[in-house]
Structures are given as C-alpha cells and as structure tokens.
Amino acid sequence: MTVSAVCRKVGITRQNYYARRKARQRRKVDAGLVVALVIEERKVQPRLGARKLHFMLKGVLLKEDVRVGRDRFLEVLRQHELLLAPKPAEHPCTTNSHHCLPVFGNRIKGLEVCQPMKCGWET
Q1: Model pLDDT, residue 46
Q2: Are 80 and 49 in contact (CB under 8 A)?
Q3: What DSSP state is assigned to residue 99?
Q4: Residue 54: CB partners within 8 Å, gap ≥ 6?
Q5: Which percentage of the chain shows pLDDT scores above 90?
Q6: How many Å apart are CA 36 and CA 42, to the nearest integer?
Q7: 3-state SS of 19-87?
Q8: Please, which residues have CB within 8 angstroms of residue 105's CB and are 6 or more apart in sequence?
Q9: How far apart are CA 74 and CA 59, in angstroms?
C-alpha cells in the first residue's frame, strides 16, 4: 500500500503525514536526550525533583534546540519511570509536646454547665 493511498483512506494530506512522522521522530530523539541528561544529573543528586531538574536543564536543552515544556518533561520522566516516589513519613508530626512554654491545667474539667455565662459587654 502506498503512502498516498493510506492518506486518502485516513483523510489527511501526504504533507501532513510526513510532518507528523518527522514530529514523532523528533519527539523520540528529544525524549532520549532528556532521559540521558536526567540520569546524569541524578547520579550527582539522586533526590532532585522533576520541576527543579526541568529548570536546571532548560539551558542545555535550548542549546541542543530541544523545546520541552514542563508537562512534556514530566510525561517523559513518567514514561521512563524516572519520577521519584515521595519519602514515606516516619510518623505524623502533629504536636510538639517538648516545648518550653508553660502548660496550664484544664480548669473546666468536671464542671457542669447549667446556663450560659454572662459577659460584661452584653446589654
């Protein structure tokens, strides 16, 4: 089957077919360069996040005439399983019980509420 026949069947021009093919090949090469650069940088800094990597590598990618946005960069890392999993928390830190402030006792514990308290600002 010829390219012209396939294009007629699908409803696109031959020019569009070749442009898309070239774009796909370029994306594959761009993804390979991004992966190589990320692996090199992760050798030095293994816990560096994707957004910071994108910012750091933006200059190198522009020199190589590779235009990769943040979302595409993240997509490439996800496809090649280069995204970092978040570190698991050892335990949730919700309360600081070891502070140097005074601790006051609970003065209303055991009190029975029978009516609302009167305040001086009520009229």
Answers
A1: 93
A2: no
A3: -
A4: 68, 70, 73, 74
A5: 44
A6: 10
A7: HHHHHHHHHHHHHHHHHHHHHHHHHHCCCCCHHHHHHHHHHHHHHCCCCCCHHHHHHHHHHCCCCCCCC
A8: none
A9: 17
Q: With residue 10 as reference, give the H or E element that holds it.
A: helix 3-10
Average pLDDT of span 21-44? 89
Which residues, 6 or more positions from 114, have their beta carbon under 8 angstroms from its beta carbon? none
Residue 27 burial by Cβ neighbours in a 10 Å radius (0-12, 13-18, 19+): middle
Q: What is the pTM of this model?
A: 0.59
Residue 100's contacts (CB-CB under 8 Å, 6 or more residues apart) are none
